[in-house]
Amino acid sequence: MANVTLRNVRKTYPGGFEAIKGVNVDVGDGQFCVLVGPSGCGKSTLLRMVAGLETVTGGEIDIGGRIVNQIEPADRDIAMVFQNYALYPHMSVFNNMAYGLRNRGMKEAEIKTRVDEAARVLELTPMLERKPRQLSGGQRQRVAMGRAIVRQPKVFLFDEPLSNLDAKLRIAMRVEIRKLQRRLNTTSIYVTHDQLEAMTLADILVVMNGGQVEQVGNPLAIYEKP
Ligand code: ADP
Ligand code: ADP
Questions:
Q1: Beta-carbon contacts of residue 62 (< 8 Å; ≥ 6 apart)
Q2: In three state form, how does the secondary structure of 24-53 look?
Q3: Could you tell me which residues are beta bridge partners of residue 156?
Q4: What residues does ligand 2 touch, defined as CB less than 6 Å away?
Q5: pLDDT at 1
Q6: What residues does the ABC transporter domain cover (predicted)?
Q7: Which residue has the CA at smallest separation from atom 18 of ligand 1?
């Protein structure tokens, strides 16, 4: 586990657009932080900076006591669950989850232990030999989460992972993610534009607007304000 602390983080895109204007956020060990706000407010930019997919032009990003501004994505102890979960269509569920670990040269026995454990937690065990096309949308999304879980990261980053699912499935998966969080207790940062999703999931809610933090705190405290 690890804390994530953003200290006066800024992002000016090449061309001069200031997308993030000095953001301070502190996510404690094992907490689930949701970044919420309208389209274009900078959520994705901020998450991508934590992941190392976007350079930081000001301030510091601290993961577990280490400033990661100059550290490669693969060395940040994070795993990201993407919106377009792009599974390899010709590979089984098992191999989809094992792929990244194999690339890192992990031993096959350790890979099997990790994939089996993730499949158990995600209730995918009976589907391990199936191809993605033989799965429902919710099951595919769970495989995408499995690929992140097997990395055993200190921090999970979620980029609108439910936005491609229909309304009913979205609600079901929201509950599943919450359960998974309680079980794994991994520090998480989750981006969404959906207020209800944010409310359900967040320990800490960060409401963003125009590249800045508008409000931060417990979701009930924020939304119950008159
Ligand atoms: P959100 O995730 O909240 O929808 P983004 O972080 O994607 O917002 O975008 C924040 C702002 O930065 C938007 O105005 C967007 O147009 C701008 N932006 C995003 N990516 C780039 C880029 N590569 N170059 C310039 N501006 C960008
Ligand atoms: P490799 O294992 O060769 O790095 P991958 O396809 O697993 O191949 O990943 C490519 C790059 O993306 C690597 O730097 C890897 O650490 C990173 N990566 C892969 N999957 C994730 C993920 N879910 N979250 C964060 N980084 C990832």
A1: 3, 4, 5, 6, 7, 68
A2: EEEECCCCEEEEECCCCCCHHHHHHHHHCC
A3: 79, 188
A4: 73-74, 78-80, 100, 103-104, 147-148
A5: 67
A6: 4-226
A7: 19
Q: What angle (nearest 5°) sits at the alpha carbon of residue 39, between those of residues 37 and 43?
A: 60
> How many whole angstroms from 54 Cα to the centroid of ligand 2?
15
Enter the ipTM.
0.76
Amino acid at 149: I
The tokens for 68 are: 């990661």
What gap in Å lies between CA 56 and CA 139, rounded to an integer?
A: 35
Q: Give the tens place of pLDDT for each residue, 70-116.
A: 999 989 999 999 877 779 999 999 999 999 999 999 999 999 999 99
**Which amino acid would we find at residue 78?**
I
In single-letter form, the type of residue at position 173 comes to M
Q: Which atom of ligand 2 is nearest to the CA of 82?
A: 23
Distance in angstroms (rounded) separating the CA atoms of residues 190 and 92: 27
Nearest CA to ligand 2 atom 13: 74
CB of 114 closer than 8 Å to CB of 152? yes
| C-alpha span between 189 and 201 (Å, rounded) | 10
